[in-house]
Amino acid sequence: MEIDGSVVYRCVSTNFIHCFRATPRHIIIAESPIEQPTNIKIHYINVSNPEKSMLITDNVLTAKHKDIAPRTSIVKNLFLVGRSSIYLLANLSDGIQIFPFIKERGNTTDKHDDYISNKWLLDNVNDSILTMDIVKETDYFVECTIGTKLAHLYAIHYNMIDHSFRQFKNMTKYENSIQDSINCIKSNEGELVIGSFDNFIHSIIGNKCESHYAMIENGKYDKKENVLVYVDSLKIKKYSTSYVRYYLTYLTNFGCILFMRNIRGQWETIKEFPRDFKKYVDRNEESPLIDCIINNDLSENELFLISGSEHGRLYTWKYDCKSNELVSSKIYKVAKTGLVHNLSLQDSTNIIFLTDNETSINAIYL
């Protein structure tokens, strides 16, 4: 069967990829042996010359991860932060660790001469970080928000001058609105959007947290089978001080749902994007790793929607939010079977994603 797209990077057969971070020029990869998930190396490839790999670090602090099963993903997210000097921030499930990447613009390196590796750890050893996103960054510091399995939120500040971590904001009042594990956090122009496994979208606007239940309206809904595992958001200016907010969610065993919060603060379901899962698989979806993207870089009034899957397919849609019409939809067969996730849209021209049992980074060129 013909496969759409092309392979950008494939690891050796004894390794697997935890996750990656793509930029227009580089792809940064966290990788380890299948039988030794804690033996992590973070390296990068140049998109124009993917055969050559450069090590960033193999000093990933994983002492707390003992006796874990083969092929267990420890590195959940990677972020590039900073401006003059660039650092790599990694979510390691039990904490976050930061590494130098570019000391000065134009000089990619695997270390800073004056840098001491530092890691912030969760206080509760029974908790784990499921998701995080960058909220603010400057030449001197970076701030991120972390969501955990036990439904806790942490606002973490990292000082690039003295290499120290600290909690800079109490998130308890927002935690009180969240009743289940936090599976997704997205930062959007100073606002936070949070997804949780009980199918709620939590949108923090200003200092208030609004919660909206993501439920299938046109079709059979089963709260045990149709679980929200991801949410992405887009904020569009309507008037000088007013915004319309769109939220794209992924629900297992169904597909995607597009919601809108209008300028009056009212929520509505804009469109559902169900899939014929029985056509492709003979089992229920259960992975919390499937993600989706909402974007309008190509046109102010046209939403570009992307979704992964558990059955080797990548889905895209174009939706005109002015006329409320579906413009186009495409299905790409990007793998024989298995998860398609860790989606990254680059310059609105190509989609990069992880597939083939976490051994291959592929791309679809639009």
- H and E string: EEEEEEEEEEEEEEHEEEEEEEEEEEEEEE
Mean pLDDT: 90
- Helix/strand/pairing category: mainly beta
Strand content: over 45%
Topology summary:
Elements (H helix, E strand, L loop, with lengths): L5 E5 L4 E8 L3 E8 L7 E6 L2 E9 L19 E5 L4 E6 L3 E10 L2 E2 L9 E4 L7 E9 L3 E8 L4 E7 L4 E6 L2 H4 L6 E7 L2 E6 L3 E6 L2 E6 L14 E10 L5 E9 L3 E7 L5 E8 L17 E8 L2 E6 L5 E8 L4 E9 L7 E6 L3 E6 L4 E6 L1
How does this structure look, described?
With about 375 residues, the protein is mainly β. Helices cover about 0% and strands about 55% of the residues. It has one helix and 29 strands. It has one helix at about 170-175, and strands at about 5-10, 15-20, 25-35, 40-45, 50-55, 75-80, 85-90, 95-105, 105-110, 120, 130-135, 140-150, 155-160, 165-170, 180-190, 190-195, 200-205, 210-215, 230-235, 245-250, 255-260, 265-275, 290-300, 300-305, 315-320, 325-335, 340-345, 350-355, 360-365. Strands 6, 7, 8, 9 and 10 form a five-stranded antiparallel β-sheet that branches. Strands 1-29-28-27 form a four-stranded antiparallel β-sheet, with no helix packed on it. Strands 2-3-4-5 form a four-stranded antiparallel β-sheet, with no helix packed on it.
